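Feature request, filed as a ticket because there's no other form

It would be nice if the structure record came with a short human-readable summary line next to the C-alpha cells. Right now we just get the raw output. Example of a typical job, pasted below so the devs can see what we mean:
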Amino acid sequence: MQPVHIIGAGLAGSEAAWQVAQAGVPVVLHEMRPHTGTFAHKTGDCAEMVCSNSFRSDDDVMNAVGQLHWEMRAAGGLIMAMADRHRLPAGGALAVDREAFSAAVTEALRAEPLIEIRTDEVAELPDDGNWIVATGPLTSDKLADAIRRLTGTEALAFFDAIAPIVHADTIDMSVAWEQSRYDKGETEAERRAYINCPMTKAEYEAFIDALLAADKTEFREGETAGYFDGCLPIEVMAERGRETLRHGPMKPVGLTNTHNPTEKPYAVVQLRRDNALGTLYNIVGFQTKMKYGAQTQVFRMIPGLQNAGFARLGGIHRNSFLNSPTLLDDRMRLRRQPNLRFAGQVTGVEGYVESAAMGLLAGRMAAAEAAGRDLTAPPFTTAMGALVNHITGGAEAKTFQPMNVNFGLFPPLDQMRGGRKGRKDRYPAYTQRAKDDFSAWLSAQ
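Raw output as currently delivered:
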C-alpha cells in the first residue's frame, strides 16, 4: 500500500499521521524543523504549542470547544490523549505542560511502526500520491509560493485582518436595525443584509477616546508587515484624525434608523452576515490590534452591542491560510488537484483544538481513500462537522477569515429558537445532538 505523505508535524499533522497509522496505512511525516526553523518555534518536536498551553474549555455540555474535545476523544485522538496525560490544574479548562505534552506526542509518533518521520522541507506540491498539507500559520516561504502558484495569487493570505464576529442573538434589535446602505439589492434579503448600530455625537466621541486609550498588542519579531489601506486597524484610522472612522467604516450615509426615522445618526457601525445560517455577524471594517480584554470593553460601548457575545475577536497577525470555501471540496481536497488535502490552521480554522480536529478528519479521509473507500465528513450538527462545513462552503468566501468552533456554526434547534435566556437549555441540546450524531458517524465506519 502506498503511504500517505503529510507535510508538517504540528498539531494537525501529528493527529493526521496518528489517525492514518491507526487505520493500518503507512505514513511519511515531513517536518522541516529543527533544520529549518520559524520565528515562533523553539524545538523540533511534534505538536509544539507556541502561543499558550491551553486547549480552552473542557466542558462538553455547555461549550462548543468542550464538545470538540469529546469528539476527538471518541475518535481515539492522539492530541487529546496526550493532553489528558499531561494536563495541569486550570479550572474548567484543559491546560497542559507544554514541553511534556509535545515530547509525549513525538515519542508516540516515533514509536508507531507505520509512521516514518523525515526532517526535510517540502518546497513543491506533488501532483501525484496521497498528500495532506498541514503546515499551519507559519507555512515556509517556498511552500507558500508553491501553494500560491497552484491556487492563485489571491487565494493564500499571509496576514489576517480579522474583524470581530458577534453572535446574532446577542445583538439588541430594539436599538439596531436591518438595512443595506441606500437600500441596495434586488431582493428583500439583500436590502436587509446589514445590521446597523447608530451612534450620537457624544457616543461617537466617547468611543474614539476609548479606542485611542485601549491597550494594543505589537507584532513579534518576524511577524511585521506594512499595513495597506484596505485593512487598516481601526485604532490606526482613529489616530489619523477623530473624524476618520466617521468617514470610513462608520459613515452614516444612506441609512435610516427604523426606530427613529427623523433623527440622523452621527455615526453607524455596520455588521454583515458571516455564515449561511445567519447566526454570526462580523463588524464591518473593525480589524484591530487591541488586546482581547480591551476589545470587549470598547466594542460593547456600541449601542446595540452592549451585551454582545463574541464568537471571535479581532486582530492582525501573521497567519497563512487558504480561502478554503473557494478551494476545498467537502473531503478537504483541493478541487484543482484532489491528491492534495489540507488540514489545520492553513484551512482557516483558529486554535489548537480546531487545528488538531481538522488533522484528525483529514487523516481518516486520506486513510479511507488509500484503502479504496470514501469517507464523508461528520454531520454538521457535530462540532467537527460544523467546522469543516464552515470552511468548505458554509462561510462567506468574500469575507472568509479564520474561525474558532462555536455554537453559531451549528444548525439551530427548531424547538429552541430564542435569545440569551434559552442558552442554558439550548447548549446542552446542541451538545447532546452532536454526541448522538458523531457516535453514529463513528459507528458507520
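Something like this underneath would help us a lot:
The first strand starts at residue 4 and ends at 7.
Residues 423-443 form the longest helix (21 residues).
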